[in-house]
Specification:
The chain has helices spanning 35-50, 73-86, 108-115, 129-134, 141-153, 172-183, 202-205, 213-229, 248-254, 287-293, 308-316, 325-332, 337-348, 363-367, 369-374, 383-389, and strands at residues 6-12, 14-15, 27-28, 57-65, 88-99, 119-125, 159-165, 189-194, 233-236, 239-241, 258-262, 267-271, 278-282, 299-302, 323-324, 352-355, 358-361. By secondary structure, the chain is an alpha/beta fold.
Length: 393
């Protein structure tokens, strides 16, 4: 097995408030932010986990959450400095910070850039104030607009805007209005996600009326046409970018690359070679437990060979371009015939196409990706596992 590219994910678990649709590891901040204590735990975690990757080059760093922009620029600089002490961060690494427009003080983006951030992901979600209120967001459309203007002003033009569609009562015109207002801010990248109601969230306890499946499909089709006309190419199910601005960090996930997961609740995937296989790591989820336990992970386990086809396809088939057949063997250590029969069955159903040595989901397959992935799920695994894994990072 040839070791794949390697990334670093650092999780910051706190938010001002927990959004009712969110099922990620985020916690409403009740007291003062324990910035210093958390940074100390991150530094211990980085030092401990660096041993398993040695001198392998890190191609991207992603500071996600939660709301990393609750932390000061000095804190971000400290985390990045610790990463460089313990890891071989490439000189041209993409370094992304997730930011909530409602938590970034005026002038902070220039400070983040000075700290080493070269890409930002703004959680805009919508430009409709009523929808933002329904989604539990703490920012206004104007704050997203001001944040984008400040990003341009400080030279951080490589930024993403997150948008959600199929919101309560939303029609095609309203969704297109969100797209137009996002495009007006000249981002380099747009993430366009359908609102889904996840079990265990506040929204699941009191679900709103959402557009029908047909209505959501009409919204998506109209938005895709508009984004294409604006030269934003769809390269993954929910990701669109101007040429050359695809997210390198997320591409590494989708190509079944490796990543260290540092921080409360962070997940990692590390390939250890042909004999040792692939290891999954999970850090302690609850921030106080993590800060007291780091660097000891909650779990560390080898991925069983029977699970690798599903895990690979879960990621690689999200990409519009799909993957080269040789990559499957290179990233999993398994021969192609381990999945060939399943792929052939999906080809006959019109859900996958194989052209030469490239395999990818068809347009229909992308629309029904969960059905495609079921073909690779081990028979003993419950369908609920598919639902849980499809929402990961």
């Amino acid at each position: 097995m040839i070791l794949p590219p390697l990334s670093l994910y650092v999780h910051f678990p706190w938010c001002v408030a927990k959004c009712p649709y969110c099922d990620f590891n985020s916690h409403a901040l009740r007291d003062a932010l324990p910035e210093s204590q958390y940074l100390e735990a991150l530094e211990r975690d980085l030092a401990f986990q660096s041993v398993q990757v040695g001198t392998r080059s890190i191609l991207s760093v992603f500071l996600g959450g939660g709301t990393p922009s609750l932390f000061s620029a000095d804190a971000v600089a400290r985390v990045l400095a610790a990463a460089r002490r313990h890891l071989n961060i490439a000189a041209d690494a993409e370094v992304t910070l997730e930011a909530n427009p409602g938590t970034v003080e005026r002038g902070r983006f220039a400070e983040y850039r000075a700290a080493g951030i070269n890409r930002v992901s703004l959680g805009g979600q919508s430009f409709d104030a009523r929808q933002l209120q329904a989604l539990g967001r703490i920012h206004s459309p104007l704050e997203t607009q001001r944040a984008a203007a400040e990003l341009h002003a400080c030279g951080l033009a490589n930024f993403n805007i997150d948008l959600m569609y199929a919101l309560p009562g939303q029609d095609v015109a309203a969704a297109l209005s969100d797209i137009e207002q996002a495009l007006a801010l000249a981002p380099a990248h747009l993430s366009h996600y359908q609102l889904t109601i996840e079990a265990g969230t506040a929204l699941a306890a009191n679900p709103p009326a959402l557009p029908s499946d047909d209505g959501a499909a009409q919204i998506l089709e109209a938005c895709q046409r508009r984004l294409s006309a604006a030269h934003f190419a769809r390269y993954e199910i929910s990701a669109y970018a101007r040429a050359g601005f695809e997210c390198r960090h997320n591409l590494n996930y989708w190509r079944f690359g490796d990543y260290l997961g540092v921080g409360a609740g962070a997940h990692g995937k590390i390939s250890l070679g042909m004999d040792a296989g692939i290891v999954r790591t999970v850090q302690w989820r609850e921030p106080r437990r993590y800060m007291s336990a780091a660097p000891v992970a909650q779990s560390r386990c080898r991925v069983a060979a029977r699970d690798l086809p599903f895990e690979f396809m879960l990621n690689a088939l999200r990409l519009v371009e799909g993957f080269e057949i040789e990559v499957f063997a290179a990233r999993t250590g398994l021969p192609w015939h381990a999945v060939a029969a399943d792929v052939e069955g999906l080809v006959r159903r019109g859900l996958i196409e194989v052209n030469g040595r490239r395999c990818r989901a068809t347009a229909q397959g992308l629309s029904f990706l969960n059905d495609v992935l079921l073909a690779f799920l081990p028979e003993s695994a419950a369908t609920t596992e598919l639902s849980a894994m499809s929402t990961a990072s």
